[in-house]
Amino acid sequence: MIHFIIVSHGHDDYIFNLINGLKDFYSEDFKFYVKDNIGSIRLEKYCNERKIGYLHTSPPKGFAANNNEMVKAIGQENIDWEKDYFLFLNPDIILSDRAIEELVKVHKENVFDLFSVDLYKDHEYCYRDPSIRHFPMPWDFICSYFFKFNKSIIDRKEIESPTKVDWFAGSFLAIKSSVFSVLKGFDEAFFMYCEDLDLCLRAQKNGFTAFYLPNIKVIHFTQHQNRQFFNRHMFWHLRSILVLYKKNFCYLIRYSR
C-alpha cells in the first residue's frame, strides 16, 4: 500500500482539485490521508464522504510534526512495515491516473528506499520544479537568495533512468515505511523547511539511498514563499538552515560537491 499524506493549511480547494482529477482515489494499492492544520468542516466532510483518512489536531504544527502525527494516526495495524510506502506531497500537487499507475508499479517492485519524481510547474510539462538537488553548502543558500542562482540544483534534462541523488523536496517525497521507522520520522526541530533535506541526509548516513525517477511526471504549482524577504517564511527558512548545519556541518562539508 502507498499511503499518500497531504497536510492542509486551508488548502481545501487544492485538495478537492487533486482528488477530483483522479479516476480512482482509493484502492487496495493506495489510500489518501489529509492532516488538516486548520480544522475545516468542509474538508472534513469531503474526506469522510470519500473514505479519505482525515485528522485534525490543535494547535497548528509545522511540516515535520504534522506528517509524523499523520503516520502515527494511520496506526501500526494498517501498515505493512516491510512493503508499504509513505508518500508525502503538497496540496498543490496534481496527480494523473498514469502517474498513480506508475507509482503503484514502483511500490510493487519495492526496490527504492526513498524516491521522488519529475516535477513540473505547468500542465504542458515544460518547466521543471528544481526539486532534485545535491547537498547544499551555505553559499548555495546565499546565492539562491541574493543572486537567484543555486548550484545545488540538479539539471535533469539528460537523466533518463532512475538515478541516485542526495535529496529532494518534501513536496513529493516517497519513503519505505521501514526506512521511515528506522529514521524515526521527520525531525520536529524543523518547523518548516529543510526537514526533507535532513531526512534524506539521515537516510544516507544510515546506508539508505535516495533515487530520482524521471519516468513519472507530476505537476507542482510551487509558490516559494520563503523567497520573499522579511516574512515569516523567510525567517523559518533561515532558522531551519541553522538547525541543519548545527546537526550536520561536518558531514555536509565532507560529502557535498
Secondary structure: elements and pairs:
Blueprint: E1 2-8, H1 12-20, E2 30-36, H2 41-49, E3 53-56, H3 63-74, E4 85-89, E5 93-94, H4 97-109, E6 114-120, E7 132-133, H5 138-147, E8 163-165, E9 167-168, E10 172-176, H6 177-182, H7 195-205, E11 210-220, H8 232-255
Parallel strand pairs: 1-2, 1-4, 2-3, 6-11
Antiparallel strand pairs: 4-10, 5-11, 6-10, 7-9, 8-11
Main sheet record: 9 strands, mixed
Radius of gyration: 17 Å
In terms of quaternary structure, what is this?
Answer: single chain
Strand and helix order:
EHEHEHEEHEEHEEEHHEH
Q: Distance between termini?
A: 36 Å
Low-confidence stretches: 224-230
Briefly note the structural class of the backbone.
Answer: alpha/beta
Overall body shape:
globular
Average pLDDT taken over every residue: 87
Taken as a percent bin, the fraction of beta residues is: 15-25%
Number of β-strand runs: 11
What level of helicity do the residues show?
Answer: 25-40%
Number of helices: 8
Please, could you describe this protein's structure?
The protein has helices spanning 12-20, 41-49, 63-74, 97-109, 138-147, 177-182, 195-205, 232-255, and strands at 2-8, 30-36, 53-56, 85-89, 93-94, 114-120, 132-133, 163-165, 167-168, 172-176, 210-220. The chain is an alpha/beta fold and 257 residues long.
Brief descriptors of the model:
257 residues; alpha/beta; nine-stranded mixed sheet; 8 helices; 11 strands; globular
